[in-house]
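Researcher: Re-running this chain for the archive, since the previous output was lost when a drive failed. Same request as before.
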Amino acid sequence: MRSDLTTRLLYIITFKVLMFTFLLGILSSSCNDDKVETKPPSTSLNKILPLGASRVEGARPEFESFRYELWKSLVDREWEFDFVGTQTDGALYEGYLGLSFDADHEGRGGWTSGEILEGINEWLDAVGSPDIVLFSSPGGNDILNGLASFDKTVSNINQIIDILQERNPNVTIVLEELAPGKSNFMTAKFTADFNAMQQEVRTIASEQTTSASQVLTVDMFTGFNDSLLADDVHYNEAGAKFIANRYYSVLESVLKSE
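Model: Regenerated structure tokens:
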């Protein structure tokens, strides 16, 4: 009897310790996501802001961001550039051609268009206005989480672009026509909403482009398949390279060389 009682008490204590550790981990992650770090303004010719959620942030070794592969492509071609953002990726990356990975970004896992809209002014205050914005999977989390109507999501995206252009009237914004999740994960509604957002992104780009500020689209869905995903929605290494290559195909025509 006493042995059974002791075992049960040990089980309860162990369970509570594990739950506390789990909740502490969630809290720490949330605090890191909300952290806004003021950094010295960049003086680079091409200040590039990777903007979005977990596909920007990455979470090595579970899944990859496209940023590292894009960084290597830009280094290869000897572009002058600087990734900017209040977030700094703490994962380990190999150096490349004698350089250390530029880990700055503005990606926060799970964040919706509404949360990005709420934070964008503070982030720009902290790091300055970029020359180029890579807007990853706009509206993706809104669709997957069902937290906003489609029209509200579109309105949020337009307002984010308005703020970016107000801060820098000459900014170039690259909007993703978002890549899908894994085929057995994409319900009929998810697929319909993703397809609708891909079409909407083209409309947004056309309507928001000004004489000074280009809003461009990049097709991330044509040719994208399950072999490029580490889980239901995030990139593996091959997927990160796929996305990075698509971004580079647009960037090479808008980056400044002098």
